[in-house]
Amino acid sequence: GKEGETDGVGAAASFHAPRGIATDGRNRYVADLLNNKIRKLVTSTGAVSTLAGSGKLGEADGIGAAATFSWPSGITINNGNLYVTDNSNHEIRKVAIASGEVSTVAGNRLAGYAYGATFSYPRGITTEGSTLYVTALQQVFRSPMNTGQIIALAGSDTHNSAAGQGDMDGRGSMAMFKF
Questions:
Q1: What's the confidence (pLDDT) of residue 28?
Q2: Which helix (H) or strand (E) holds 32?
Q3: What's the confidence (pLDDT) of residue 110?
Q4: Is 117 helix (H, G, I), strand (E, B) or coil?
Q5: Do residues 29 and 14 touch, judged by C-beta distance below 8 A?
Q6: Which class for 115: exposed (0-12), middle (13-18), buried (19 or more C-beta within 10 A)?
Q7: CA separation for the pair 145, 132 (Å, rounded)
Q8: CA dihedral sign, ordered 88, 93, 97, 102
Q9: Which of 1, 39, 126, 159 has CA 20 to 30 A from 46's CA?
Q10: Distance between CA 91 and CA 74 in Å, rounded?
Q11: Which residues contact 68 (CB under 8 A, 6 or more apart)?
């Protein structure tokens, strides 16, 4: 019940604003937003450990604690890898479950609103196997696995304007979302 970043079993473990969760059937993986870590929870024992992230804000690829995140939010799993929306880095990061190795797969650390060119504060993520689907502010994107390509599917690319935010059905950029 108290915020923290302690690894442990059951109530001895702590999180600080956990956001996303994914499972491989045996374990749960949590995007621990304000700790800037990816945590592993063993379902059968309740043991929590840090898989990746030092806890410091940053954008370093690396293994385990050598990697840094900036508000990891969404998380999904595919073929032994976790895909994480690294919100304030405007990127999608891949974490190899077996090794804890973190690499950047899409985005360029710069917030962007060019339709289909960049992410701005990506949050939600899921996959159907060969493609990642990502929500970011007013848009929905797809990114084919291992290409780094970002393709806008729906929503306006006009950030922070009355014309770009809203609640409207439509096709492609004619649809509107707000966060």
A1: 98
A2: strand 27-32
A3: 65
A4: coil
A5: no
A6: middle
A7: 7
A8: negative
A9: 126
A10: 11
A11: 36, 53, 54, 56, 57, 58, 59, 60, 62
CA atoms of 16 and 37, how far apart (whole Å): 10
Q: What is the pLDDT of residues 111-136, one digit of tens each?
A: 655 544 567 889 999 999 899 999 88
Report how far residue 36's alpha carbon sits from residue 127's, in angstroms, rounded to the nearest whole number: 22
In this prediction, residue 161 carries a pLDDT of 52
The per-residue b/e assignment along 67-94, b for 16 or more CB within 10 angstroms, e otherwise, is: bbbbbbbbbbbbeebbbbbbbbbbbbbb
Exposed/middle/buried for residue 11 (C-beta within 10 Å: 0-12, 13-18, 19+): exposed
SS3 call for 65: helix
Q: Is the pTM of this model over 0.85?
A: yes
User: Helix (H, G, I), strand (E, B), or coil: what is residue 111?
Assistant: coil
Around 138, how many Cα atoms within 13 Å sit in the side-chain half-sphere?
Answer: 26
Token readout for 112 is: 């962007």
The strands making up 81-86's β-sheet, listed across from edge to edge, are 62-63, 101-107, 91-96, 81-86, 72-78
- Which among 117, 133, 116 is positioned nearest to 125, based on CA atoms? 133
Amino acid at 173: S
Q: Residue 104: what residue type?
A: T
